[in-house]
Write a structure and sequence with these properties.
heterohexamer, A: 407 residues, mainly alpha, Ammonium transporter fold, B: 112 residues, alpha+beta, 2 helices, 22% helix, binds adenosine-5'-diphosphate
């Protein structure tokens, strides 16, 4: 009887992780459409192909290298060995975590859009997903005892292990800070600034961008809730905190940006980025505040990035994922406290240190990889290619062939 | 024969077309164009960036007519396309030397 | 052992409601795209922003006021109090029911499109979701003992409690009748009728509209099936009845409208609106008939609304949600009967009374709220604003910036 | 106690199949958008309406005829009889399997696009879903003891029953080979080849097509994983094999097609088509190879179909579903073997025979049905109708009314 | 030099272009326009509402030519664009006073 | 009065517009057109099929001017639109007989 229940629970967990994996996989479609809508028409095909191919390459590399690094498990035995005992629970765990890992190139893609060469970018994605990300992931969630484990160095030093429930730091901050290095080394799009004068480049299609945002928001509930990784561990609090933080992000962006559709649809995402780390600890009202602050950070820092720093980060992935992810890691140490209605068990010190280590790790790894690839083979399209658009330059077709070719 | 080109505000197309029909104009060709003139464009704002849009959508009506209809057509267009505010547009009258109807090969004023 | 099973079942219920909540949340994206495709290009951004912001505002107001009114539960204790006992089951129940509540402004949005002011509309949404809807909801599903409870007044008077499994009346009829009041008080779009002559305004984008319809149809299975609110309560009959009613709606709309894509894609929705109330009681063939009749009602009444009543209800939300919802409430009393293959336990009298009370409640509340706001601050854009479109007027950007601004 | 667990498991299975059904239902939206993006603008509305109406008609016909043929179960008793015992498990099983059956016309739709008459095509869909498909389905999965049953003829003759876990052959090969007959009998679109010269007709909208591909990929995990048909039967291996085969398809298509977005987005689908049959048996690396080979088959054979065979198969459904499905059936007999890391229990002989029988069955049935309907009422639009487009000809409206009619 | 403007049915563009090339026309500019004339438009119906569409998509080809080519070009267009049914379109011939090639600054007939 | 039609490369529009403003041109109308000439089109490939695209997007600027401005405008356009590579476009100068400002009914050179 207990045996039957255990077997059923095991199957339930496989289902649980599979559903989570599929929901986060669908988010990758969201990344694609967010980028399609934000880039110019001549780069829409490239946005779509990049996201899909990065995902496929990430699958292979994380299967063979990344997941083993982070968790010490690999799947090179026979199908029987790797699946029979637990109905393939470890396999779907891999699938679920892959969809997180593959978010790294998907995040970066939006920053470097409209001017990056195809294959160097794929190679860089492979290195990030196969090596860079899993090492940090392992330190927080996996077998590399350093930050997130109960008995890790940081747990001792900071009073509690580094807490990042669903990846504000591990995934988003990491992705955003890796991206900003790439964006800077790549340089701005031709014509973005001429003689110090800013010529903002208009986005192509707001409904497409909104579709991407919707796909991301919906899937995000899988990202956060299924981070429990087992049915038993599920927490309704995580779901409602995600919801409240998203609502906070939308409302704050609406008000601060004076009703700008780009900021509002990204504001929802800012809230969701920031809530990941502490979504299991916050009180819903705390989550609301965390999301609202994230949206303000996003709006203000995107404008600052564009107008002062002059970094041509097309989708604003550094403020969105980098800064809001960083904020999320730290906020977890604030609003996670019992004093602020949270469940406790976290310290601001540990959160701060863990978050900063993540950020420095990303900057270092990002600079090394981008610098090497840039020096070795180059990462940028020629000016002529950029001018005709990456669709024609790389894929030899544009997004609306009937229109350009004629019916 | 003359050719008339009238640049008008898009929402006036329907009434101009009807009026031209009434006075006996049986054919015309229209093009979506953008105009720049005394009429101010507008400003758009997106994610903190401002965009100034100087070109305003207009409709270009082009007509080829026999000489006797020209004055009537000009009046008809002027009357119906006028709103009184800046940007109502312009009419240009130009010479045409020959007209051919492709279907029949007719030429000159028969072909109009 | 029983304890372990109970714990697992509790977690299963959290998962169940969370999945339902996410599916219905995704329907809100569907509302957005249905509207985007149906309005003119110059109002597409506004459609997207309205739906998203209404959802966020609904979240906050229903969390703090609406849900407590309807169910007598609130979440102002610490995170521990509100989530530990049941893994946050009540929290996800709130999330699930919020996605229903927030459907009210999403329904209305489609009726008042292209000419409503932004903030007054948000304020009205907040009142509806925070007060009006929860009161009626409470009467049928909640703590306000009046219509739907086993021992309610109507149960005695009508021979059975008012039965509305998934909200034909509570959600759709309510939304549709509230909307029609707003639409009438707002008045038709400029140019819709001139000197009694009808100038129908063409929709912008049928694929977008169809995308919205697909998103709604898919999510609707969460709307209906997850209304069981626990895994144990799940009923395959609800799923198949929803399916059959949708099929009935599509086929009837196809035939009656002579293959009109607008009517067909909305016909599917008409079937789904009407089936909600009795989806747990009908025989699948009964559900098919209910859906088919709903689609005929929708097609005929939309044309009547436009040509005779001259009500400028842009998406046709009154015939779709109002009339088909009303039909669904009553149909539940007919096809739910054992005599017609149903599971029984309902009376036509109770269904009729409950449905009519819902309708009158909506008209009264709707008129009061719209009238007050209209008198106090106005609900309509100026003619000039309407002419340039709500996108430019409210959001200072249009849907395809690259096109309008130039690459 | 055991009883409570059994009841809970039963409810879990209803949920499981319902989720699967909804995910595969969503794939039909994917079929619609894949077609919308691939046809010319003047046929987009028709693509949308065809898929939706075919689904509705399939629902009715499979409910009343098809499912009873394949499984010997029907639902004409009272609602009580058909749902109470097992919470409607058989009903959701019907729903789940319907979404497979309805894939037949959805697949065909993409091949015959832009020139088929509406009602004859609907009638043919009804015959396929009501009769043709269920007979073969019954032979493999159902009550017609012939190919797939443990004690079937083929199990004896070939050393193992025909194995088709999730329908590479039953669904995809069947659909693809039925389609190619229709496509040939219909003839190429006007102007596709003039005097032996090829005039390829450009697709309209790559982002729409990519959206369709995403919807299909996401839903496909329901198609494959939920083919277990019970929570207990779930296999993480199926999920990861689907993932790996999809990745193989994407990467192979990327390389072979030199970065062509059409081939890459369809390459993902090619991998998923081929993996269905053996997704429960392959090793993930085997699945990767199966998917990669499928994508090569798709790319090469689509070009061959267009340039040599001159078959005007608009979406390439014959190479995609027909050939890759056939490959999947056979590959299951190769990479399913223990020697290649698989779980075994299959023979190449049985797989080969079962697959070929499927193919011949499709060709025969397809030819009979298309020939009869073509002779009796005709299946093709007039040249004039085709010229103005099926949207105007059949639906009297085009996809972007505001544009064509004027705001 | 003359300017020819030919309004033709869109699907005839390819053959007209080839034919013009054959007779030595080396450049042309085309515009998508909408025409109104003897040819009937069509009716669309959506959700019970009828829409009459009077304007029919056409292609406007515009050419500037030296005088000697004009007659040949007119014939070439007339021949290849003709389907014989209403709506085949029209050709207008107009005077041009000067032509400049921007790249080189050449003027007059060299610049064509 | 004359009418100038200039076919230019799209990305040159902004600078041409500014320059024309500088020399006193207050109004203009632009149309998106496609050009065919010495400049090669490009090839696209999709699912194994090749497409040759001969027509290249251009912008047509059309101006009506009083005679004294014509030469200056031609020079202004030639200078600013020139990149030196094939496809820079052409300028045509044509006669205009009359101009009407719809808003006021003014005619002739006042109306420009
Ligand atoms: N000199 C010109 N040449 C060509 N088009 C012109 C010229 N001046 C104005 N236009 C066209 O006429 C439109 C209206 O002109 P504008 O100066 O805005 O107002 P108004 O016609 O009331 O004087 C412009 O948008 C432009 O399309
Ligand atoms: N007087 C005119 N001025 C300008 N364009 C015209 C005129 N008459 C006809 N056209 C153009 O020529 C096209 C064909 O004309 P129509 O009368 O339909 O047929 P046909 O050329 O066979 O007589 C119209 O659609 C319109 O674009
Ligand atoms: N004879 C012509 N009539 C009308 N337009 C022309 C003519 N010749 C060229 N054009 C236009 O000018 C553009 C540039 O011409 P092209 O021959 O490519 O280069 P260039 O102007 O450098 O000689 C063409 O794309 C076309 O739009």
């Amino acid at each position: 009887m207990d045996g039957r229940l255990d077997a059923f629970k095991n199957s339930g967990d496989v289902l649980f992780l599979m559903l989570g994996a599929v929901m986060v996989f669908a988010m990758h479609g969201g990344f694609a459409f967010l980028e399609v809508g934000t880039v110019r028409k001549k780069n829409q095909v490239n946005a779509l192909v990049k996201i899909l191919c990065d995902f496929a390459v990430s699958t292979v590399i994380y299967f063979s290298i990344g997941f083993p690094i982070a968790y010490g498990l690999s799947f090179f035995g026979s199908a029987e060995t790797i699946s029979s005992a637990d109905s393939g629970l470890e396999l779907v765990r891999f699938f679920f975590l892959l969809t997180f890992a593959a978010a790294i190139p998907a995040i970066i893609s939006g920053g470097i859009a409209e001017r990056a060469r195809f294959w160097p970018q794929v190679a860089i994605a492979a290195v990030f997903v196969g090596l860079v990300y899993p090492v940090f992931e392992g330190m927080v969630w996996g077998q590399i005892n350093f930050l997130g484990q109960e008995d890790s160095w940081l747990a001792g030093f900071g009073g509690a292990p580094f807490h990042d429930y669903a990846g504000s730091v591990v995934v988003h901050s990491m992705g955003g800070w890796l991206a900003v290095v790439g964006v800077i080394l790549l340089g701005p799009r031709v014509g973005r600034w001429t003689n110090g004068r800013s010529n903002p480049i208009p986005v192509s299609n707001i409904p497409m961008l909104a579709l991407g945002s919707w796909m991301l928001c919906v899937g995000w509930f899988g990202f956060n809730v299924m981070s429990a990784q087992s049915v038993d561990g599920i927490s309704g609090l995580v779901a409602v905190n995600s919801l409240m933080s998203m609502a906070g992000g939308i409302i704050a962006a609406l008000v601060v940006s004076k009703n700008d559709p780009g900021f509002i649809h990204n504001g929802a995402l800012a809230g969701l980025v920031a809530v990941c780390a502490g979504s299991d600890l916050f009180h819903p009202l705390g989550a609301f505040v965390v999301g609202a602050v994230a949206a303000v950070i996003f709006v203000k820092c995107f404008i600052w990035e564009q107008q002062v720093l002059k970094i041509d980060d097309v989708l604003g992935v550094w403020p969105l994922h980098g800064l809001c992810g960083t904020w999320g890691g730290i906020a977890c140490g604030i609003f996670g406290q019992k004093a602020l209605g949270g469940l406790g068990g976290v310290t601001l010190l540990s959160q701060f240190i863990g978050t900063i280590i993540g950020l420095l790790f990303a900057l270092t790894a990002g600079f090394t990889v981008y610098y090497v690839v840039k020096s070795a083979v180059g990462i940028r399209l020629t000016e002529e290619e950029e001018f005709i658009g990456s669709d024609l330059a790389i894929h030899r077709i544009d997004a609306y062939p009937e229109e350009s070719i004629g019916g | 024969m003359k050719r008339i080109e009238a640049i008008i505000k898009p929402h006036k197309l329907d009434s101009v077309k009807s009026k031209l029909n009434d006075i006996g104009v049986t054919g015309m060709t229209i093009t979506e164009v953008k105009g720049f003139g005394r009429q101010r464009g507008h400003k758009e704002i997106y994610r903190g960036a401002e965009y100034h849009i100087d070109f305003i959508p207009k409709i270009l009506i082009s007509l080829v007519l026999t000489d006797d209809l020209v004055e009537k057509a000009v009046e008809a267009i002027t009357e119906t396309a006028r709103t009184g505010s800046i940007g109502d547009g312009k009419i240009f009258v130009m010479p045409v030397e020959d007209v051919v109807r492709i279907r029949t090969g007719e030429r000159g004023s028969e072909a109009v």
